Every structure is written in C-alpha cells, then in structure tokens.
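I am still getting used to backbone structure tokens and would like to learn alongside you. To get us started, please write out a protein record for me. Once you have written the record down, we can walk along the chain together.
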Amino acid sequence: MNAVFDAANGTERALVDLAETADSLAIESTEMVAIAQYLEGEGLIKCIWTLGPTLPTVSLTHPGIVEIEEQRSAPTQSTSHFPAFNVITIHGDIVNSQLQQSSPGAQQQVEYNLDQRRQVQDFVAEVRRYLPELGLAEEDQNALEADLQTAEIQAKSPRPSTGIIKHCLKAIKAVLISAASTEVQSQLLDLLNHIPH
C-alpha cells in the first residue's frame, strides 16, 4: 500500500501499474493479486482488471489515502488495516538474544543452558591456570581477574544474567588480544570463540 501511495504521489487520480510495483518489491504476481484483491475489498484501492495473466492497474481511494496518511503521521499507532511500524537498528553482534518490540504486556524468558554455563566456568578456570604465562601488566591482570570473577559468579547463579556474562567475555577477550602473542593466548581465544556470547 505504501508503494502504491508513493507511486501515485498520494492522489486518487494517478494510475499505478501493479506489475511494476510487484517487481520493485520482489513479490510474486500470484501474491500481488491476493494483496490487490484484499486492498480493493477493503476499499483502499480501485483495480482495473484486464483479461489474461497480467496484474491490474490501480488507483488510490480517498479512504486509502487517509489511512496511509494516518499511518505515516503516527507510525507507532496501528490503523484499521495496518499494524504499528517500528524499526530497530542494531550495530554490533546479536547472539543468543531475544528481541521484542511493540508487545505491551508480553514477556520473554531467556535461559542460559547448563552446558553454556559449564563452558564459561571451564574457560574461567583455564584462563586462571595460564594467567602467569600471559605476561600482563598488573592493571590488566586485575581487570581480567575482576571480569573472570563476575563471569564465574553469574555462570554459577541459578538465574545468570546473560548480558553480564557477555560483557565480561568481551572484556576478557579484549585483554587476551592485547596480551603478548603466545600459544597460550591463541588457545584461550580459541576456547572463548566456542562459547556462545
């Protein structure tokens, strides 16, 4: 509907070739026929059907224009025919994460399974075991130990915070990367890369 509105410049008088619209949106013609039939049935567009396997030419109706204008002026509010429109832009990695948007009253539960928690605990133990071989400055070693403790505590918790664990693992990774390049460093980074975070 938005594509038709744009192609018609928001007027009732313009005719829009639905075949071109379908191509630009990569929608199969059979699906576009169903969409056109629905929108026409709801009184949002008028279709000019021709014989043969072609898609109709369409024009907007006044109610169709009003509804799109309402939707565009308040995109976070649903209209009679269209849901609220929200965009989430994420920069960075999303692993083992749940997203929820525009779902008032909805709940989600995230579980960090026992195997993942055990992996974190084993990784923490390995880093501690090889800590003297990493050649870290005292400040880096103290920061690393704080992140190791936090990750370990969260991994042992009956309700671990995956966000805190992820943050700690990223901080640990940064310290390991900054350490002098050794076989131990390489092994620890490899272990870390096998933990979902």
Remarks:
- The beta strands are 16-17, 45-48, 57-60.
- The two ends are 40 Å apart (CA to CA).
- Residues 2-73 form a domain with the Arc Repressor Mutant, subunit A fold (CATH 1.10.10.10).
- The chain has a mean pLDDT of 87.
